[in-house]
Automatic annotation (TrEMBL):
Entries under Gene3D superfamilies matching the protein: 3.40.50.920, 3.40.50.970
rRNA-binding keyword on record: no
Known function: The branched-chain alpha-keto dehydrogenase complex catalyzes the overall conversion of alpha-keto acids to acyl-CoA and CO(2). It contains multiple copies of three enzymatic components: branched-chain alpha-keto acid decarboxylase (E1), lipoamide acyltransferase (E2) and lipoamide dehydrogenase (E3).
GO molecular function list: oxidoreductase activity
The protein's name: 2-oxoisovalerate dehydrogenase subunit beta
Species assigned in the record: Marinicella litoralis
Pfam families associated with the record: Transket_pyr, Transketolase_C
Co-factor requirement: thiamine diphosphate
Keyword list, A-Z: Oxidoreductase, Pyruvate, Thiamine pyrophosphate
Transketolase-like pyrimidine-binding domain sequence ranges: 4-179
Length: 326
């Protein structure tokens, strides 16, 4: 079993589905000959042919329209938006057609497509290359939003996304594409969608996060352990729909919750989780829910990017605040 990075896990999952399902098509800008901006599709066109791994023009709206058309006619297209910040020309097709197809046709047509998008900051890129706007899509009924946080989950969740009968936006935090390696077996075993993963068990506080922020959250949990604070760490993974049952079960045990996200704070996924805890889990809480987030500004360029990103120290500050409440 090989140790691979997250981007290699994405490539492995795509290759597995291309190999085992003739209806799977990969398409996008530079995904074929060049293997994609981040080389997530490297070697796939050479192995499976240019009729299965399609280079498209630089036209995101066209890519999304083609993807919807393929999906409604029995294919399973996997399209790449080079960056989440480039996805907005695709939104009309994703929201007005892909997300509504099952309802519009009363179940006669489904739309089994995947839109892959590298996203998030931390690599010193311009603002359209650094956005974390997952809440825009999580708000829309009819589309799943899935976020990978490790090589093994990238592999298993992408397999599940491709096999799902409904549209999935699959977000890949590029800051952790090459961060670490894990042993991942190319066995075709998918991970369940619509489910949180308890990454570390604890008894004193629940830390809820997803995507690239898993790194800082786990580092914070290590430091808290040195202080005698036992932190349970949850990877939300599917942010629409959110598996609140797992979060409620954890908070019922710990009594405290801190939510960590890279995205801006206002009207965000962390807002929804916090509201749900207040609505349905208030009596399990021994302290107010705290959030560690990005700021309500466009990602600042370069020198201020690190300041924008939630840090281990900011997580520890919020945990210490909730631990002070008796």
């Amino acid at each position: 079993m090989a140790k691979i990075t997250m981007v290699e896990a994405v490539t492995m999952a795509l290759a597995h589905e291309l190999e085992h399902d003739k209806d799977v098509i990969v398409l996008g800008e530079d995904v074929g000959i060049n293997g994609g901006v981040f080389r997530a599709t490297s070697g796939l066109a050479q192995k499976y042919g240019e009729d299965r791994v399609l280079d498209t023009p630089l036209a995101e709206a066209m890519i999304a329209g083609m993807t919807v058309g393929m999906a409604t006619q029995g294919m399973r297209p996997v399209a790449e938006a080079q960056f989440l910040g480039f996805i907005y020309p695709m939104v009309e097709h994703i929201i007005c057609h892909a997300a509504r197809m099952r309802n519009r046709t009363r179940g006669r047509l489904t739309c089994p497509l995947v839109i892959r998008a590298p996203y998030g900051g931390g690599i010193h890129a311009p603002e359209h290359h650094s956005e974390s706007t997952e809440a825009l899509f999580a708000h829309m009924p009819g589309i799943r939003v899935v976020v990978a946080s490790s090589p093994s989950r990238a592999y298993g969740l992408l397999l599940a996304a491709i096999r799902n009968p409904d549209p999935v936006l699959f977000l890949e935090p590029k800051r952790v594409y090459h961060l670490n390696k894990e042993e991942v077996e190319d066995d075709g075993e998918e991970y369940p969608l619509d489910m949180c993963f308890v990454i570390r068990e604890g008894t004193d506080v629940t830390l809820v996060t997803w995507g690239a922020m898993m790194k800082e959250t786990l580092e914070a949990a290590d430091k808290l352990a040195e202080q005698g604070i036992s932190a349970e760490v949850i990877d939300v993974a599917t942010i629409s729909p959110i598996d609140m049952d797992t979060i409620h079960e954890s908070v019922a045990k710990t009594g405290r919750c801190v939510i960590i996200q890279e995205a801006a704070k206002h009207c965000s996924v962390s807002s929804e989780i916090a509201a749900n805890l207040a609505d349905q889990g208030l009596y399990n809480l021994n302290a107010p829910v705290k959030r560690v987030t990005g700021y309500d500004v466009i990602m600042p360029l370069f020198k201020l990017e690190k300041k924008y990103m939630p840090s281990v120290d900011r997580i520890l500050e919020k945990v210490n605040q909730v631990m002070e409440v008796s």
